[in-house]
Design a protein that fits this description.
CATH topology: Cytochrome Bc1 Complex, Chain D, domain 2
Strand content: under 5%
Oligomer: single chain
Order of helices and strands: HHHHHHHHHH
Length: 222
C-alpha cells in the first residue's frame, strides 16, 4: 500500500442500530460513581475479550476501547448502541435486555461512562452528511489497500482487521466516522500510519478516501 502497512480498521467498535454516529453526541456523565459502577460491569462482561484496560484483541478482533483516536470520534450514542445491540455474526453479542442480553439501560450507561473516562483528548468534529464518491473507484482502492486486513468482501480477518461489511456497524457509523478512521488512522494498531499520510507523505487524496467510504457504504442494506 504505497509504502505503508495495509489499511486496517481493527479499532472500530461493533456497531449498534440507533442511527448514525456523528462524533458529536453528548458525552456520558464522568462521575467517579458511574465510572466505578461501569468498571464492575466491564470486568464481569467485557474484559475477557477487550482486556482489563480496554487494550483490545485479547480475544479475536475485539476492539481497543481505550484507543484515543477511537474515543475522540465515537459518540455516546455509538457506544451505547454497540453495547446494547452488539454486532450480529461476530463474537460481540447484544448485551442490552431489549436485544435479549443481560444488561439494563443503567448498566450500559455506566459502561459508557467508564469508556468515556478513558478519553484524554478532545472530541473531534467529523464531516457531516453523506460523503460523495465513486464506489467503483473505491472498489479498486479497497482491493489494493484494505482487503488484506479486512477481507476481500469486508468480512474481516482474524487478528488483523474487523468486519466492515456488517449491517449493524454500517447502520451506526456515519460517513464522517469512516472518513476520519481512514484519513487519520488509529494509533497503536495496524491502522497507523493512515492512508491519508503523515509527516507530509502523501498517500491517498481526500477524493480517494471519499471513494473508499462510498464503496464501504455500498455494502449497507436498506
Amino acid at each position: 500500500m504505497r509504502g505503508t502497512a495495509p489499511l486496517c480498521f481493527g479499532l472500530l467498535v461493533a456497531g449498534g442500530i440507533l442511527g448514525c454516529d456523528s462524533g458529536s453526541g453528548d458525552r456520558a456523565e464522568l462521575s467517579p460513581r458511574l465510572a466505578g459502577k461501569g468498571a464492575e460491569v466491564y470486568t464481569a462482561h467485557c474484559a475477557l475479550c477487550h482486556g482489563q484496560r480496554g487494550e483490545g484483541r485479547v480475544r479475536g478482533n475485539a476492539t481497543a476501547l481505550n484507543n484515543q483516536d477511537f474515543l475522540a470520534t465515537a459518540s455516546d450514542q455509538f457506544l451505547w448502541g454497540a453495547i446494547t445491540y452488539g454486532r450480529p455474526g461476530t463474537e460481540m453479542p447484544a448485551w442490552g435486555r431489549e436485544a435479549g442480553g443481560p444488561l439494563g439501560d443503567e448498566e450500559i450507561s455506566d459502561l459508557v461512562a467508564l469508556l468515556r473516562s478513558w478519553q484524554k483528548e478532545s472530541t473531534r468534529k467529523l464531516r457531516s452528511g453523506k460523503i460523495q464518491g465513486s464506489s467503483e473507484r473505491g472498489r479498486a482502492l479497497y482491493a489494493l489497500n484494505c482487503a488484506s486486513c479486512h477481507g476481500e468482501n469486508g468480512i474481516g480477518n482474524l487478528g488483523m482487521g474487523s468486519a466492515l461489511n456488517n449491517q449493524a456497524f454500517l447502520r451506526a457509523a456515519s460517513d464522517g466516522f469512516l472518513w476520519e478512521a481512514i484519513a487519520k488512522g488509529r494509533r497503536d494498531t495496524p491502522m497507523f500510519p493512515s492512508l491519508k499520510g503523515l509527516d507530509g507523505v502523501r498517500q491517498l487524496s481526500s477524493e480517494e478516501i471519499n471513494d473508499l467510504v462510498a464503496f464501504i457504504r455500498s455494502w449497507g442494506k436498506p
